[in-house]
Amino acid sequence: MSLEGKVAIVTGSGRGLGLAYAQELARQGAAVVVNDVDQATAADAVASIESAGGKAVAVVAPVGSTETAKQLVQTAVDTYGRLDILVTNAGVLRDTVLWKMSDDDFDTVINVHLRGTFTCVREAATYMRANEIAGRIICIGSPTGQRGNFGQTNYAAAKAGIVGMVRTWALELKKAGITANAVIPVAATAMTATVPYFAAAVEADQKGEPMPAFFRHDLGFGTSDDVAGLIAYLASDAAASVTGQAIGIGGDRLQLWSHPEAVATAYHDGGWSYEALTAGFTDAVGDLQTVGEKFPPLPEDLQRPAS
Fold first, then answer.
1. Structure confidence at residue 293 (pLDDT)
2. Eight-state DSSP code of residue 239
3. Quick one: which of 204, 67, 93, 207 has its CA closest to 153?
4. In CATH, what is the architecture of 7-187+223-257?
5. CA distances (Å), 283 to each of 239, 248, 267, 291, in order?
6. Residue 294 phi, psi (nearest 5)
7. Residue 21 has what pLDDT?
């Protein structure tokens, strides 16, 4: 097994994508610290790993605080003697448009996703550096952080921030041999289950049937298990040279997201005054960049009547 002898922490791993990540890491030989805010959910996750022959222990606590980060790392070290892998997956949603979003809506999402990723990675990286462990940091992003999405100011900010931190950590941790990458998953989750466009795929997944090829291939939309293989790969020694990347995965599709780069460059003698921009902005920059995800029309046989 590729991760034999390794120890991993997966935040937010009681169910959904996080559980799939924890189960795959265990299947590949890693001992796993499962994390959730609900005791029964965490216990069920541990039981599912142990029943398949893996090793797991639970930490029931919300991520965000330094105290939880310390508890997670200490549990890994106390229980299994070391820490090699951290997957920061924990998250919450508080979706609403900008003018209706409260301070609490914003702060809650930022605290769990962005601050929780920061505190957990800081604690894990500090331990790995002190113990000369060439560890693996894997942070979960989202297409929303890459492209934006209506009603998700808080979530888009957090997920974009996570990718920015990963690129910085890849630079800072390189000398220690620690890699840092972001994974951008596209899969059937509690969130996508509410989107009518994905209804046929979600129905198939819930029935245990294969998703239609349109979703798996054309959209790169699949199951939680379709994402888990990339998590295990990035956690392995085989991915020692992969760092600072944002990697998308879903269904049958694997993608490497580009780092932001200038797509147009123009010069104007004396600088770009208001008058110069008014006269020449459109010609200087060309076509503007699009925002948000744009999906192709559903094939007729996959359309569902509006409820």
1. 86
2. G
3. 93
4. 3-Layer(aba) Sandwich (3.40)
5. 43, 33, 11, 20
6. -125, 120
7. 98
Q: Tell me, what's the pLDDT at 282?
A: 96
Paired tokens of 171: 């630079």
Q: What is the mean pLDDT of residues 102-120?
A: 98
Place of tokens 């798996």: 216
**207 among known catalytic residues:** no
Residue 117 in contact with residue 139, Cβ under 8 Å?
yes
- Candidate list 13, 127, 155, 236, residue with the active-site label: 155
Task: Determine the Cα angle at 218 with ends 260 and 96, to 5°.
Answer: 60
Q: What is the pLDDT of residue 1?
A: 63
The DSSP element (H or E) to which 59 belongs, if any, is strand 55-60
Q: At residue 79, what is the residue type? A: T
pLDDT given at position 191? 72
Contacts of 125 (CB under 8 A, 6+ apart): 135, 137, 169, 173, 176, 178
Within 8 A by CB and 6+ apart from 91, the residues are: 12, 109, 112, 113, 140, 158
Q: Could you say which of 80, 159, 224, 236 is catalytic?
A: 159
Among 75, 23, 16, which Cα is nearest to 48's?
23
Q: Which helix (H) or strand (E) covers residue 204, if one does?
A: helix 199-206
- In whole angstroms, what is the distance from residue 35 CA to residue 73 CA? 11
Quick check: is 307 catalytic? no
pLDDT of 303 over the 90 cut? no
pLDDT tens digit sequence for 198-208: 889 988 988 98
Q: Is 155 a catalytic residue?
A: yes
| 3 state SS of 34 | strand
Q: Which of 142, 175, 267, 274 is catalytic?
A: 142
